[in-house]
Structure formats: C-alpha cells, structure tokens
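Risk register update: the risk of archive-format incompatibility is retired. Evidence:
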Amino acid sequence: MKSSLTDLKEVCKGKEANKWPNVSLRDLCMLVNGKAFKPSDWSTSGKPIIRIQNLNDVTRPFNYWDGSLEKQVIVNPGTVLLAWSGTPGTSFGAHIWDREDGVLNQHIFRVDFTRPDISPQWFTYSVNQRLDVLIHQAHGGVGLRHVRKSQVEALEIPLPPLSEQKRIVAILNDHMADIVRARVAAEAQLEAAEALSAAYLRETFKSKESKEWRWPQLKEIAGINPRRPRGLKRPEEAPTTFVPMPSVDGTSGNISDPLERPFGEIKKGYTYFEKNDVLFAKITPCMQNGKHVIARNLIDGIGFGTTEFHVIRPGDEVIPEWIHLYIRQPAILNEAATHFTGSVGQQRVPSYFLEDLAMPLPSLSEQKRIADTLKERLANISRACVAIKENLETINQLPSAILRKAFNGEL
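Archived output:
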C-alpha cells in the first residue's frame, strides 16, 4: 500500500487538483430513472429487478419482472447506477453494476454518459466522495429521504484529463482492494472470537459432569417476573436507576450506561427489578443479540427498565451468574426464538419458555467456581471483540477518508 500512496501523491498533488475543472453531472450524462414496480408485478422468473437493497448487499435476493421489456430501463454489466433515495449514509450513492442484465427499480438513476472523456469509475468515486452535498439537500421523512433530479444534475465533480482519471482510479482500486481484504480478515477474527465464547459455554453446560447434575426447570429455582413489593415507598424526586435497552451491552452482558431518573417519573409503566435479578430481553432482535444482564450497582438496590425485559429472580439454590451464563448460550437463544409470539418485528419470547427451561444445577460452590472461570474467559473475549469492532469501524471509514484526500490532493 505504501507504494500506491506514493504514486497517488505524485498524480494527485494539490496544485494539480486545483487545476481540474469542476463539471456538473448534467454536462456529463443523462440520468434515467427506474420504473415503479409494485409487489403485484413481481415474479419468480424473468429479469431481476434491481432495487437499492441489491446495490448495497449482494446477498439480498432479487424480485423478478417477467413482462415486456419495451418500456423498462435495462441495466447491463458495467452500467453506472446512482441511488438517490432512501436512508442517508446507507442508500445514497453511485455503483457500477457487475451482475446479470436486469431492469431498474424506481429511486435509482441509470447514468448514460454523453461525452467520452469521463471514466465510469472516476465518476463513481467522485460522486461518492461528494455524497454529503446530496444528503444535505435531501428532504422527506425520518429514515427515508430523497433528492430531486435537478439537484443531482447540478452536483459538480472534478474532471482531470481522462488519462489522469485512469491512473488515479487504478491506485484507488488498489487501496479499496486492501480495505476489502482488511475488512474480511477483521470480520473473520470477530466471528472466531464470538464462536470461542459459545464454545466455552457449550463445553461447560454439555460436559460429562453436567449429565450428573440435577436438571430442574428454571421456575423451580427462580421466580419469573415476580411482583413488585406492595407499598413500595420512595420520595418522588429520589434518584433511581433506570435501564433502557440501549444501556445493555450485548457483547459483554453488562449494564454499560445506566440512567438515573426521579422515582416518580418511572414508578409506573416500567419493569421493576432488584439487585441480582437477571434481566432477559424478550423482544427481537435484542433477545438474539445477547441483551441479557445481571442487575447490579443499583441505587438503593432497586431499579426500573424497559417493559421488554423478563425478570428472573434467583432462589437459594442458584447464583445469578449461573443463570446468566446459561441463558446467554447461542443454543438457548436459538431455542427461545422458536417460541416467539407476535407479529414480525414485534416478536417476543413468552414467559413460559423461561419457566419451563431445564438447566443443570451443581452445588453452589461448584457454580461459583465454574462461573468465575467462565467470566474471566468471556471477559477476555469481550475485550477482544471490542478491539476488533473498533478496528472494523476504522476500516469502514477508510474509503471516504482516502477519497477525500485523493480529491483534495492531500495524499
């Protein structure tokens, strides 16, 4: 990568970049909008309908159009596409289509170049480097915004000589390939670390020793969603721990950012819990993402949180850590998902799943010994996962940083 940086610095010096003219997209191309396909138009065969989701994720399945192609916007491999509607930061952007022929859905322009001195890849890099301009102009509701065609046509990009475009594009391609390799490696590291965590838990709860332990149902050794104490009294203004779902770290299984609220503000309409209760996130996708935690460091030993928690209160035979470790196993969470009730997007694990869940129960001293060992191992894995995720975040920021430097002549 070092030699590529040196080459790019030579061909993209600031004083040279300052000489490049800025040209509006309307002077470079025609923008042809895709058609609006309704679900009733979809088929299981024919030409794939290219939607924004297919630009952003190659694993997303296609819908198909099996009708006449006469009035459709056809896309061939190598065609430049420009998404102009959707979620800022994820949907907007230019892409070079590299899959089979298809027909274009609405909210995407097909870019038909009208002059020969523009490289498709240079155009794509240049537009994506200036997406902030379009996003700033976007209007519409929260989460779904769009820009007008005239705004896209007015966007200006730098236009060096074609030979210069090709040279810089070649260097940028090398950088992007390095970034892809780094991202793949980091994702593999994260997957391996998360798999190791599951392996440690499986090794414990599926060991030979575990077969000799008692296997009671959870409701036999813990209370599930116990009632709050009658006549709970506390000054209305008293600071009280409050735990919304975002305060639970799904990687470490800890309360990472508890809030404080006046007791009078949260005493009704929220889930009550006490010190050492285990909180189980019942709603998707928080349940699958490991948003389960032991309630600790509570003001005066009590707290309130989102109604999307089931509360598990350990009895005398079991420690909170043992329950917490057991229910966070991927196998248990996968099993819980098969018991979901409710509509898609609002599915929840019913309390009876936890009540009927069988779990191994060694002696209290054995629970503590094993839990201490597991917690140390899982803490190490959690720290590794945090470091890997931070690395991934840095990697994901590199493309925009490199493009910015390239077009500013700073590399």
